[in-house]
Design brief:
- This protein is mainly beta.
- The strands form two sheets. Strands 2, 4, 5, 6, 9, 10 and 11 form a seven-stranded mixed β-sheet that branches.
- β9 and β10 form a beta hairpin.
- It starts with a strand and ends with a strand.
Amino acid sequence: VQLVESGGGLAQPGGSLRLSCTASGFTFSRYIMSWYRQAPGKERELVATISILGTPTYADSVKGRSTISRDNAKNTVFLQMNRLKPEDTAVYYCQRRVGNYWGQGTQVTVSS
């Protein structure tokens, strides 16, 4: 199982970023996928989850500003983040819930 995140970077407050996580080594369409984030000095927190059928759930902190989606043909899960805030600054991780597999993370920094 391999999960590779990309799409992080520096964004201004109010801006947008689209994170991607490309999976390999398993049948992607059969698994629930999640995005987590970890800010410096804080615990890792769940940001969003998408079910096998594509049903999303969100943390209150990103609800209404973020969209999780998946493309099973491309073995990829996305996190579109809009109206970014400085408190969104964190390393963002992709997770396959079953088996607790993680990617290496991608840094998101929101700053003017």
